[in-house]
Amino acid sequence: MEKQEASLESFLKWAAEHGVSDSPPSSSSSLSSSSSSSSSCLGHSLSISHFPQAGGRGLAAVRDLRKGEMILRVPKSMLMTRDSVMEKDQTIAHALKLYPSLSSTQVLAVCLLAELNKGRRSVWYPYLMELPRSYDTLTTFGPFETKALQVDDAVWLTERVVVKAELEWREAIPLMKQLDLKPQFMNFKAWLWASATVRTLLSIVISAQRIPHPLLKISSRTLHVPWDDAGCLCPVGDLFNYAAPGEEIAAFEDSKRCVNGSLLEVESFQNGDGIENPSLDAEEYDSSSGRLTDGGYEDDVQAYCFYAKRNYGKNEQVLLSYGTYTNLELLEHYGFLLDWNPNEKVFMPLELDMFACHSWPADSLYIHQGGWPSFSLLSALRLWATSPNQRKSVGHLAFSGSQLSPENEKTVMKWIISRCNAILESLPSTIEDDRSILCTIDEAQQLEALEKPSNLPSAAAMEFAEFIESMGLGNGRKNGMLPSSTKVERAMGKWRLAVQWRLNYKKTLFDCISFCLRTIDSVETLQR
Ligand SMILES: C[S@@+](CC[C@H](N)C(=O)[O-])C[C@H]1O[C@@H](n2cnc3c(N)ncnc32)[C@H](O)[C@@H]1O
């Protein structure tokens, strides 16, 4: 512990010496010298703190911060990019030129491993020592955790990203051999760590562009810092944990819905505010409203600058919006998920004949985490539930989000209810089973050893037995207890994430059923 604190301290001192600062830029001093005398680059606006329920290590406000205030700047010279690594190391520069077919993410992952391979000789050594040791991104999921996701789309995505990660690693091996990396920096485990680091940290910079520009699409994974298409790693700037953009929208939707829970309330909001208007996608919406404008590279000061996105009270965690992600995407790219995610979507597969009567893209047909169907899903289903010869005449109403008739609305709601029920029944465990498993995992995580509770429902008991099996602990019991280890703890953490994800998914379907029942009720009340 003391060693960790000392390492963090020397990291912050090193950052201060190189011009990283959370103080306002002084007009008389240059960026690189403004904080060089300080023993830490933080303390004026931010400090490192621990937030067990919201990302672990993160940055807290040391005083009240005002919305729009600059709270951190990191000089260009500190950013780790393909170019900055090449500038400092001719061997790497030469080797990289021999492998032009590698993607920018692969190249940056190799640069990171090559710097790590140098040990103390790397100019980024204090930063490298502070990077997380492991990630729980989907690429690190084994067969057990993958199966625990249960939902076909999520299982398929996980299998695909694991295969892709291995392929990318194989493609990068010749370059890593050329650079003569030590075996521990060249194996697949090291690759998974490096590519997860690049993805989790790079995309912050990508998605936090401050100045809205038509060509700089926020949250696009292909956007890069202006001078280097490989993007960058940003010491200290990557200590901000994540807040989902769109919380304001969700809160507003909730307040509208709470008026009487009727569909019309939701419709008028969605329609009037264009939230789900297909001509205005989420990224444009965010950039035009400035919701993601909390950081970006600024050429005039040659630094990455971060701004308070809202007012913060002293000691509050200061968060950054990395972009708009569903929970599965958060798991894929960052290895965590949010119990309440305003951008969560449970996609609703339609039958083939339904696609024939609308032109909404499949990814707009979903249920929000609160349980209400998306604007496009409702519109598509209302048209489908209309007889084919009338569709043309009511098309404009459906596309503007209006109900078509009480009977039509009830048909739509009943269809959604039956789909949600069918999906819930097809999954191997229930919401109650999943809650029991989560409790068991939470208890086990607090104990020194892992004990199978006697009162688990059968589906949960079976999954528990599979976990023990997957850990190769089948014969290791001592008085019914299993020894815990770092490996078991990490696997349990990923298992927990998988269960948490599928539980949220099921709760959304369940809430959707309640929503549809309420809507049928209010339609019938109006009919009476
Ligand atoms: C850019 S880092 C943020 C700093 C990180 N906590 C650290 O100690 O280095 C991103 C990682 O932090 C964690 N994280 C960020 N925001 C989170 C949140 N809201 N909930 C849970 N974990 C979060 C995830 O592990 C993610 O991959």
TrEMBL record:
UniProt domain SET: residue ranges: 44-323
GO molecular function: protein-lysine N-methyltransferase activity
Keywords for this protein: Methyltransferase, S-adenosyl-L-methionine, Transferase
Gene3D superfamilies hit by this protein: Rubisco LSMT, substrate-binding domain, set domain protein methyltransferase, domain 1
CDD domains the UniProt entry points to: SET_LSMT
Listed InterPro entries: Rubisco_LSMT_subst-bd, Rubisco_LSMT_subst-bd_sf, SET_dom, SET_dom_sf, SETD3_SETD6_MTase
Source taxon at top rank: Eukaryota
Gene Ontology biological process terms from the UniProt entry: methylation
Residue ranges that the Swiss-Prot or TrEMBL entry lists as coiled coil: none
Protein name as annotated: SET domain-containing protein
Organism this protein belongs to: Carnegiea gigantea
